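FORM 7B: Structural annotation worksheet

SECTION A. Query
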Amino acid sequence: MYDEDIDDNNPMFDLNREIIREQRGITIITRDNVTEIAKKLINDDQSFKNTTASQINLF
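SECTION B. Predicted structure
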């Protein structure tokens, strides 16, 4: 897990910083927004419905 405040100068997280800079649509979870993001993820998860047809009985 990458913490911008703690790991800013740690070379182990160079790839994380590169991905954050280059990719659009990345959600960065911080101490300030963790509750809001978690609620959004839970709500988004509940909105997905299983639309895959499956066979209930073999015979």
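SECTION C. Observations
Residues 18 and 29 are 16 Å apart (CA to CA). The helical segments are 4-7, 14-22, 34-47.

SECTION D. Sign-off
Analyst initials: ____
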